[in-house]
What does this fold into?
Amino acid sequence: MQTTARTSRKYLATPIFSVLMGVVYLVALSVAGEPVYGVLALAVMVGFSGALLLARRRSETVKGLLDHRDERISAIDLRATAITALAMIVVILVAFVVQIARGQSGWPYSMLGFVGGVSYIAAVICLRIRG
Amino acid sequence: MRNDVRERRAAKGLSQADLAQRLDVSRQTINSIETDRYTPSLPLAIAIARFFGAGVEEIFHADHS
It folds into this structure.
């Protein structure tokens, strides 16, 4: 029973996070005076969460991505995340270079690059210590 | 890395889905292992070997050997 409960919580993590982000968007857009867009954003995120849960029933890949129980799909998830991060790094670097070439400060791309670099170094150190 | 998973599974009369369920992995993973497109982790390789009642080295074969 405990294992089942733990598994349930695990596969619900991404849908719940998506709904919570929808609520955050709703609050942020309401504060900005755009509550209608906020409700729309929340609806999109709730729809996305629902689509994920429905897809989990039909697709082994989606199920594996949500459950994190299948080592091969977890490895695919990890590599896909790394490729995504690489794409983001390229975009940030190009945007930063374009900005400074135009005589601008490079903000916020310089800060994004800084956070990315520090995160990478911290991750390498932590993972190395953990073995 | 070559392996005998497909032959051993067929000998037991199991489908890929049956074996996947027993090992708590996806059917796709079993298929990828059988077609040498995915090399399982050591814990999964041991689980597969134990399931078939054999040693890991009896099921998985390094290409250079």
User: Anything to note?
Assistant: The radius of gyration of chain A is 19 Å. Confidence is low (pLDDT under 50) at residues 1-5 of chain A. Chain A touches chain B at residues 60-61, 63-64, 69-73 (CB under 8 Å).
